[in-house]
Amino acid sequence: MRTVAFGSLAAFGVAGIVALAPLSAQSPSGTVDSHVAAARTAAGQDHIGLFNRLCQPEPARPAASAATAPTAAPPRPPGPPAKATWEADAVKVFDNLYFVGEKEYSAWAVATSDGIIILDTIFEYSVDSQIVGGLKKLGLDPSTIKYALVSHGHRDHSGGAQYLQDSFKTRVMLSAADWDMLEKNTRDPSKPKRDLVVTDGQVLTLGGQQLTFYITPGHTMGTVSTLVPVFDRGTRHVAAAWGGTAFNFPHSKERFQIYIDSARRFSDIAVKAGADVLIANHTIFDGSKTKLPAMATRKPGDPHPYVIGTDSVRRYLKVAEECAVAAMMRLP
Length: 332
Prior knowledge:
This protein is α/β, with parallel strands linked by helices. It has a single domain, classed as Metallo-beta-lactamase, Chain A (4-Layer Sandwich), CATH 3.60.15. It is built from nine helices and twelve strands. A seven-stranded mixed beta sheet has the order 1-2-3-4-5-6-7, with helices on both faces. Strands 8-9-10-11-12 form a five-stranded mixed beta sheet, with helices on one face. Helix 1 runs antiparallel to helix 9. The radius of gyration is 19 Å and the shape is globular. Residues 1-25 have low confidence and may be disordered.
């Protein structure tokens, strides 16, 4: 029998309000350059993609009211892009974790004895080829997809969710804030029907495996970050998935401070949990562009490309934090 257990903080289907820590009252110390330097040091050689994406100056996005704030990523040209530009091989990464995403946008499948949990659903035009087709190529049954966690309500992560709902009766999970954001979005060609509401600290148990979700506002106001136990030839590790990364939101000091506070909080959570694996929803951020091919040539006894250690996971979130501080300090 399928078992689903929820954390004590709230039950699915009930909108929860996240109690955020108070915003820092004082201005950050140091200079833009000193925070960029701190981010560069934290990046080392393993998080260069993240550093390059976040710490380069970009034009400020004007602050907006809730009524006028953008509700999704910028619209793309009509029609799907050529398949050759996004098609990627599905890869078994851990005993229970599989990559079923695109070249640039990631989707992950957590396989349990009682069904599959998908982390992010990529686009409506690629979900059948990549997630459904990818699972089949890996010997997994897509009809057993029980849940799909959407980290945040942008089309590159939520676009395929409706297809999974309609095809497999998959239960789709977002935070309350991002369900609201999706409902206001009139641009995306495919949106899931409102379903399960993720609350902070919630635990999903399926087939004896437990995933824990945290509301980490910043990239969107309801971004969800996740801890996932994974196994490498029977050895247990913990994967941390930072739910939203880029600064493509209205730029204000308050919004950046929310992002910074979330990065600090999730770093503490990940370190306390002993997270030693990092996965992202864009392949450039977690090094998947090189790590996925490395899985194909990995021999018995070789280190696992994704097992980077708790300190490296901490440094990844430090890069996000320090680049956000630098970006906030650049604001007038």
